[in-house]
Amino acid sequence: DSGVTQTPKHLITATGQRVTLRCSPRSGDLSVYWYQQSLDQGLQFLIQYYNGEERAKGNILERFSAQQFPDLHSELNLSSLELGDSALYFCASSGQGLVQETQYFGPGTRLLVL
Amino acid sequence: DQQVKQNSPSLSVQEGRISILNCDYTNSMFDYFLWYKKYPAEGPTFLISISSIKDKNEDGRFTVFLNKSAKHLSLHIVPSQPGDSAVYFCAASGFGGATNKLIFGTGTLLAVQP
């Protein structure tokens, strides 16, 4: 158990809908990262937050947004969902979000868009 | 452009023998490398890491070797056990300190035969 929790574990929804994925980092970690793993791609970095502020953006679509709250949990919002958004979404956390820090991953949320 | 490459999609090894998983990278800005293990329906689990100032790091049965001039790293597992059967991801970070985002390879499926 990495100490990172994600809810829900599974999500089935329809195209055009909006969903929210939630992540709680390990106790004491200030930085949260979101990654997407789809069938035809490996793990792709989406976005990083540190202590409530966005620190880095990767291949995140404009239809997707995220935030980190004062209690350090984070939410990833996916809107106007398309079939191609079906994927595993992982959250990871690390202490300060600094280089050479190990990231610890949650169990993921499996999203299926029908 | 795949900056981190794992050219072997799969590897089969006998129990007790050595497993060698390979990873190549192209970006010379990377200065921290990690290996993660992933079981189906679980998040990636951190195994071992290495900083670019080192060429070897050991942790129990796992050793990571880094050859900076060749931009190549490898993970050695000795002795291999059936419980090691999983997908192994190589990841890299280090973009001049701007972010700790990870760039992942596509993974190698290791099967350890009893």
Please characterize this protein's 3D structure.
The complex is a heterodimer of chains A (114) and B (114). Chain A has 114 residues and is an all-beta fold. Chain A is 0% helix and 51% strand. Chain A has strands at 5-7, 10-13, 19-24, 31-37, 43-50, 53-57, 64-68, 74-78, 87-94, 104-105, 109-113. Chain A is globular, with a radius of gyration of 13 Å. The termini of chain A are far apart. In chain A, 39% of the residues are buried. With 114 residues, chain B is mostly beta strands. Chain B has strands spanning 4-5, 10-14, 19-25, 32-38, 45-51, 56-59, 62-67, 72-77, 86-93, 103-104, 108-113. In chain B, strands 2, 4, 5, 9, 10 and 11 form a 6-stranded mixed sheet that branches. Chain B is globular and about 45 Å long. Classes of the chains: A mainly beta (114), B mainly beta (114). The A-B interface holds A 2, 4, 6, 31, 33, 35, 42-45, 48, 55-56, 58, 90, 92, 94, 97-108, 110 and B 31-32, 34, 36, 41-46, 49, 51, 89, 91, 93-94, 97-107.
- Would you count the extended β strands of chain B for me? 11
Please give the largest β-sheet of chain B: 6 strands, mixed
Unreliable stretches covering 5 or more consecutive residues of chain A: none
Span between termini of chain A: 31 Å
Order of helices and strands of chain B: EEEEEEEEEEE
What does the overall shape of chain B look like?
globular
Instruction: Tell me the Rg of chain B in angstroms.
Output: 14 Å
pLDDT average of chain B, as an integer? 93
Specify the overall morphology of chain A.
globular
Q: What structural class should be given to the helix and strand makeup of chain A? A: mainly beta
Could you report the average pLDDT of chain A, rounded to the nearest whole number?
A: 94
Helix content percent band of chain A? under 10%
Alpha-beta classification of chain B:
mainly beta
Task: State the oligomer.
Answer: heterodimer
Percent of residues in helices of chain B: under 10%
Number of helices of chain B: 0
- Beginning-to-end CA distance, first to last residue of chain B: 38 Å
Percent in strands of chain A: over 45%
Number of helices of chain A: 0
